[in-house]
Amino acid sequence: MRNPRTLVQLLAVALVVALSLTAWFAVREQAAEEDLDRAEAALGPYETAVDAEAAARELLVDMTSYDYRDLEGSFDWLEVIQDEELRTTLTQNAEQLEEIVARTRAIAEGEIGETAYLAVSDEEARVVAFVRQEIRDTRNKGFRVEEQWVTLTMVRDGAGWAVAGFDFITVPPPSEE
Fold this sequence. Notes:
46% of the residues lie in helices and 31% in strands. It is an alpha+beta fold. The longest helix has 61 residues, at 4-64.
């Protein structure tokens, strides 16, 4: 390879190959970024649903936990109920429950078992939860356990979550076969 012309031709070919590879990598990087953007957009509702599930769990614990010794704020969770009719009904029930809790000196502790969620959109999710509530009456030594499946429709409310719908799910008892 003593011929300078051959050397120049080899350098030109190497330059063309290098430029081609650079262009190919740039196109691939652009395609990868677009794929990532599409994947992130598709995950948006699922991330929303995870947040909604966490908010629903916290709300359900608040709803099912109270203590006759400190009822102040026990029913503040009513503020996140968006449906006026449902909030009115639950507020009336809460007022009656507060009287009963004070009179019977009851203590209830709620816990959430299994949950599942469905992402509806970036702004809404449905959460299904198994709620277990242990209710103690200080006058009696025993306690009562109530268990129920519930579904909540959670909607974005500013930086937090509100309840647009609330339903009990009736599950028949297991068969004795």
